[in-house]
Specification:
The chain is mainly alpha-helical. The chain is built from 5 helices and 2 strands; from the N terminus they run H-H-H-E-H-E-H. It has one domain. Strands 1-2 form a two-stranded parallel sheet. Strand 1, helix 4 and strand 2 form a beta-alpha-beta unit. The relative contact order is 0.18.
Length: 139
């Protein structure tokens, strides 16, 4: 009976991790999602964060504000993080209520073996600048 409980627990954990990682991708909307899934030739990029290498956070934030989309950009994973925002000053529940947020597809708090950190680093810098601009309009 104890062994069956442990097996069930491991299977459930594996399912939740799998669903959680894939579920993060569905939360991204707008330009970033389009850019993250298609390159300028209409083909699949080699990495879901490849779009960020040519992205302009100031221009994108300005357009989002103009469009009335004041959601912040977040990194997914076991714990949601919002780059560029001091979570001690602006706790996640406050940000969720006042601004909202969307998880950037391809981000998490774990790396796969052999995965480069260059795209994540660039995405973090992009989200940090983007969020700092948008935050002034949503609070």
């Amino acid at each position: 009976m104890v062994m069956m409980g442990k097996t069930w627990s491991l299977m459930l954990t594996a399912v939740l991790v799998s669903v959680g990682c894939h579920g993060c991708a569905g939360n991204m909307a707008g330009k970033e999602q389009t850019s993250a899934t298609m390159d300028n030739k209409g083909t699949q990029p080699s990495h879901p964060l490849q779009w960020v290498m040519d992205a302009d956070p100031k221009q994108d934030a300005t357009q989002a504000i103009h469009d009335g989309d004041l959601r912040l950009l977040a990194f997914g994973g076991r714990v949601v993080s919002i780059p560029g925002i001091d979570m001690a000053v602006y706790p996640l529940p406050t940000l969720r209520e006042k601004c909202g947020y969307r998880v950037i597809r391809g981000t998490s708090d774990t790396l796969r073996v052999g995965e480069s950190t260059a795209y994540r680093s660039q995405a973090y810098d992009y989200a940090k600048r983007y969020n700092q601009i948008v935050l002034t309009h949503c609070l």
